[in-house]
């Protein structure tokens, strides 16, 4: 398979690239648009907005989601907000500053041109969403309100209470339903993509399973768009929804789409700790808690006293001690790593020792309960609901959790993968966040891709490409259908002794221990062995009941976990290959004396795009070199 | 904790269902209700019995995918809480719990506790939107919106579309769901041009989907996990009467 | 409003009624009329405490304007019929909307009164029929019935204990019906306010209680001998 990793970024000054690209695009005649069929898989911020926008333009769209409604996609759970370089606060923000912050935040592992375009488009997103009726927070004068978020020095985050993701998604969902009503989108809820069909080297369709009756079906099209989200659930426990999975992008990978930077996974420090084996997911609490809470652990390992009985001198406020100037406000990855480190030393708190205290006693003393309640009331309530503990009286316990995956299918400037006609948008692609995503940027990217980038670039592809008519009775479709059916049958025929969940949980533990927030070569090699062994065990000993034609939730899960096994392996291979630390990828061998991530720009200033070479073959690495012409790579320090 | 569970089991939409008795021996006060069912399902699977089908996704109370009746109350005994956020410490050792799916003609059972709620999507498709194609929007601050109006719209917009309102309503009415969307969009200046058509189409469609009528009883408000108020129904009624 | 505006009033009304909101609107509207009648009727009845002369004079006064009287009666009849028809249609909708009931269902947010409107309503309707036969036409009260002798008719009617008990029972049902109906009519026509709706609910309760108490005071007075002893 030949591999073209050209990013296809036009040449010129960065401010004008997107304009130039749009001007150079060949357009599809408006009357011809309805003759093109486009499949959009996923209905979150990226997929939903893309499907709606493509239909508005006149294309024939089919949209698929595994949930029972397009409105359930996990974008809905984003709390904090969405960034936009509106500079409404007159505090010095600009498109260039948002661009700069995002490139720097990504620790210089993203493509400058893409990031600049994202910053440019950010302003249109807010306008679009306001017009759709998204009830953003307002000032008393009626203007849009902003807050500062995730350590940014300007207030550029727009929000709708703690439900920004929900409101943005509902905006996109409503736009999508409008097109459904107009007959331009056909929606397929409870339908999972299980196969990609490539004909003459181009993506021409997908194979799906109807999750209600198990029917395997083919859908032919002129282009396929994946907006299927991130793969954080490979760790079993993450802040992702239960159903979030990598199956669509993984099966695309196996059909030739390169997978970029799979080891770039982001950890969020302020999550509610695991309480037992039965735990099904982790719940994130806004990072803003660290503004007033102080993080500490007991000085003595195994100190069983209740926190309030541990006197000040016997506490270690380890972030304040190690990072005197930033203290508890060090970036996500630094905070997360330090929390894990103290727990690994046996200083962790809670019944399983996997947690640190986030204490509001001082803040309450200083500001009073009323102020704290006003600032964090809903978070405190949520914490109380889940743990049964009252954080006004007892310190919260927090622990880091997998939150977002920067890696994903490789795409060029037009968001097309290495398979022509296969476009990848939102968290499912690798594009804009480099090795680390800034807060309130995920929503921005999903909507930028869906509303404002893909609708143009897909038109360019369709206008420039000769596409013969294909039908679902072609051999390629039949072959893919039978492949999908084989996997299903195989999973159902094993009838071993362990549940899918038990395997998934074990896989997650291996990955979390060795390819989590800090990694080293020895551990990664060990993990690779364990994962292969576990995968072997899975295919011999998993027990999936029921039939292929049932509403069979265990079967759905089983197929996803089978893919997670393979992805987990690729993540470890990627992490092992990248002999540097950057952003969220922290290789213990490569750190500064201050325990900061130590990049190696000489050798690793590239996007690692992995190409599938066959079931038992090692994947092949292709590198897309990254050039930084505007933002000079620097070493960060939070001391 | 030990619990006695009576769970509605139904193989498919056309098949008859019945309550089946289970013992949950390994419940723990720190589990969420769904985790308790996960554990039960693991046990059932190992015994070779079909696990209980139920919907859930985000498990943090926002996606609206989960939901069933616990002892006759939609989403169970804790107010303003979905079943995924309901924890077992709300129950006592030895409790007997009846678990049933949402019941409404418009929400046919798919299997066990999972129901088909696409009727809600079709109500939204009938008019629950503002027609604004991508690219046509003016600057976000062009139209000022008073803070209290934005807040009120947000209260209504908080609906997660879980269907508890329909399930709890003796009439299986979708008035709270429909009213919430009509109130959300009708409160905002951006929603004015389509306001009349929106309410006419959405209300007509909710009847077409065979949801019942609202009789102002208030069960919906009591079970709504986002605590949406009956006021949105009054707003819908007013808009509808005006638009007719 | 494009297509809406050109419709005829009749067409619009028909469309409104087609929707359940329209039916509720009709129930609210007719409810107001019937409530207004109840208030008037109670004020008339309470004149019994002022003695037979006042009561009979009041009856004579009403009958002195037969046109108005029949007009009012027609309005009431239309209202009652519309109220009942709409309620039956809504109930049919309800049955259709949930073909399979719950094994277990708890009510946690609604009043007993609101859930029993379809019981209290028919009880009141049945009572009204009997009541008209009894004290207006005298069909069931033949022995002593004399037209336009309202006071006598009333006292003789209530001296029959079962009649009084039935009357009191019906008035309790009426009170419950009004408690839900009175605030609910505001909701049905779209009047709701976070501050005033709770006030309306409380007012509805007191009005319902006072109205029923007013009506019940008469049979109680007759049975305890406070009224009509001279007859």
Description:
The complex is a heterotrimer of chains A (639), B (244) and C (231). Chain A is α+β, with helices and mostly antiparallel strands and 639 residues long. Among the domains of chain A are: 267-403, Flavocytochrome C3, Chain A, domain 1, CATH 3.90.700.10; 475-604, Methane Monooxygenase Hydroxylase, Chain G, domain 1 (Up-down Bundle). Helix content of chain A is 36%, strand content 14%. Chain A is built from 16 helices and 19 strands. Chain A has helices at residues 17-24, 45-57, 95-105, 112-132, 164-181, 247-253, 318-322, 332-344, 361-367, 369-387, 442-464, 475-494, 500-515, 521-541, 553-577, 601-604; strands at 37-41, 60-64, 82-83, 157-158, 185-188, 191-199, 202-210, 216-220, 223-226, 259-260, 265-271, 294-298, 315-316, 356-359, 396-405, 408-409, 422-424, 606-611, 620-625. In chain A, the strands form five sheets. Chain A has a five-stranded parallel sheet with strand order 5-2-1-9-17. In chain A, strands 11-15-14-12-13 form a five-stranded antiparallel sheet. In chain A, strand 6 and strand 7 (202-210) form a beta hairpin. The model of chain A has no long low-confidence stretch (mean pLDDT 95). Chain B has two domains: 3-110, Ubiquitin-like (UB roll); 117-243, Fumarate Reductase Iron-sulfur Protein, Chain B, domain 2, CATH 1.10.1060.10. In chain B, a hairpin with an 8-residue loop joins strand 1 and strand 2. Chain B has 244 residues and is of the alpha+beta class. Chain B has helices spanning 33-46, 118-125, 147-157, 164-168, 175-187, 195-208, 219-223, 231-243, and strands spanning 3-9, 18-24, 69-70, 73-74, 96-100, 109-111, 114-115. Chain B is elongated. Chain C is mostly helical and 231 residues long. In chain C, 77% of the residues lie in helices and 0% in strands. The longest helix of chain C has 32 residues, at 66-97. The N and C termini of chain C lie far apart (66 Å).
